[in-house]
């Protein structure tokens, strides 16, 4: 961690767009709890509705760490992490964060085993001709608001919520870190206390020209649409740094062909100039899309790097570490 001013909790502004759905979500029947895998103490509360849009619910998953046998009335709730999936803003789902044959202990499981309540939401994806950047931000803010409303049920401290995102999810997490009450757009601050970005785009103005690999439909253009030529700058975290920006941990592979590491380096420089607490971890040789256990899918053998201890050390510096835990 680089030295900076004390971490400040962002002011929490009411988000009126959620008012119409709060009562509906509260009436939805509770989903059954089930174990993620026999060997894990983590419990998955799957497919929980958190926002109603056009009559259709958006869902999230909750990963619960081992619970307290007896909670004292004065005990502090556990910290929560909003875990945001990637997919170039046009694909992906929270289900990709669940354990699978190729990754039985993904980041969601390891964070929950470390004592965090982990919430993984779906959000609106873009399609050619259907921009989704503001809608996706609404969704992510709504997910944070859902955590706050259900803090007692989840045994969560509503003042200790962090966001971690991968790729496009990293971009959305970084955007949360830069929100201000008087921003000239409908999305309002949500009170996240720290942000971790895995390979997240930071400068949407430059990304299309910097990208080594290309798709038939450039994801940035699909995500932002073509109606607002200024949207790329407004949606770029590197251009949004201010004195209330929350601490950031940037994790980026040096061989990333989808989001070049120059994106993280420019944000790192902007945070340094502004005096915001931050750190950039360069993962040598890593390409796009790695998890907390960095491995090359083409090279069998033991893991070359485990990032969880470094993430926990960052969260500890931000006052986010669960009781009785150490990095």
Overall description:
The chain has 327 residues and is an alpha/beta fold. It has one domain: Alpha/Beta hydrolase fold, catalytic domain (Rossmann fold). It is 26% helix and 20% strand. It has 10 helices and 11 strands. The chain has a 9-stranded mixed beta sheet with strand order 1-2-3-5-4-6-7-8-9, sandwiched between helices. The chain is globular, with a radius of gyration of 19 Å.
Topology:
Blueprint: H1 19-27, E1 34-35, E2 43-53, E3 56-64, E4 78-84, H2 107-113, E5 117-121, H3 133-149, H4 151-154, E6 156-166, H5 168-177, E7 194-198, H6 207-210, H7 219-224, H8 231-234, E8 248-253, H9 262-274, E9 278-283, E10 293-294, E11 305-306, H10 308-317
Helix pairs in contact: 3-5
Please give a quick description of this structure.
This protein has helices at 19-27, 107-113, 133-149, 151-154, 168-177, 207-210, 219-224, 231-234, 262-274, 308-317; strands spanning 34-35, 43-53, 56-64, 78-84, 117-121, 156-166, 194-198, 248-253, 278-283, 293-294, 305-306.
Give a quick account of the main beta sheet: strands, pairing sense, barrel closure.
9 strands, mixed
- Tell me the β content: 15-25%
Helix content: 25-40%
Strand and helix order: HEEEEHEHHEHEHHHEHEEEH
- Mean pLDDT over all positions: 84
Helical/strand content category: alpha/beta
General shape: globular
Order of strands, main sheet, comes to: 1-2-3-5-4-6-7-8-9
Q: What is the CATH superfamily?
A: Alpha/Beta hydrolase fold, catalytic domain
By DSSP (H or I, 4+ residues per run), the number of helices equals 10
Q: Can you identify the CATH class?
A: Alpha Beta
């Amino acid at each position: 961690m680089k030295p900076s001013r004390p971490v400040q909790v962002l002011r929490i502004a009411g988000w009126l767009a959620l008012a119409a759905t709060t009562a509906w979500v509260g009436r939805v029947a509770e989903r059954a709890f089930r174990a993620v895998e026999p060997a894990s103490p983590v419990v998955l509360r799957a497919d929980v509705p958190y926002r109603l849009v056009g009559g259709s619910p958006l869902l999230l998953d909750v990963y619960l760490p081992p619970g307290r046998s007896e909670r004292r009335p004065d005990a502090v709730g556990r910290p929560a992490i909003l875990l945001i999936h990637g997919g170039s803003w046009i694909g992906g789902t929270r289900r990709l964060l669940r354990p699978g044959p190729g990754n039985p202990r993904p980041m969601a499981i390891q964070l929950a085993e470390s004592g965090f309540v982990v919430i993984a939401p779906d959000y609106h994806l873009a399609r050619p001709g259907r921009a989704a950047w503001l809608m996706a931000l609404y969704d992510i803010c709504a997910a944070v608001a859902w955590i706050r409303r259900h803090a007692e049920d989840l045994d969560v401290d509503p003042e200790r919520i962090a966001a971690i995102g991968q790729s496009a999810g990293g971009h959305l997490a970084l955007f949360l870190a830069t929100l201000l009450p008087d921003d000239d757009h409908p999305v309002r601050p949500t009170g996240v206390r720290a942000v971790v970005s895995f390979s997240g785009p930071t400068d949407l103005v430059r990304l299309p020209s910097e990208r080594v690999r290309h798709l038939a439909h450039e994801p940035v253009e699909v995500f932002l649409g073509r109606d607002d030529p200024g949207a790329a700058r407004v949606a770029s975290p590197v251009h949004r740094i201010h004195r209330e920006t929350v601490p950031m941990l940037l994790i980026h592979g040096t061989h990333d062909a989808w989001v070049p590491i120059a994106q993280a380096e420019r944000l790192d420089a902007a945070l340094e100039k502004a005096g915001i607490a931050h750190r950039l971890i360069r993962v040598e040789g890593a390409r796009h899309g790695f998890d907390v256990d960095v491995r090359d899918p083409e090279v069998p053998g033991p893991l070359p790097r485990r990032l969880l201890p470094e993430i926990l050390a960052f969260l500890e510096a931000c006052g986010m570490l669960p009781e009785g835990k150490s990095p």
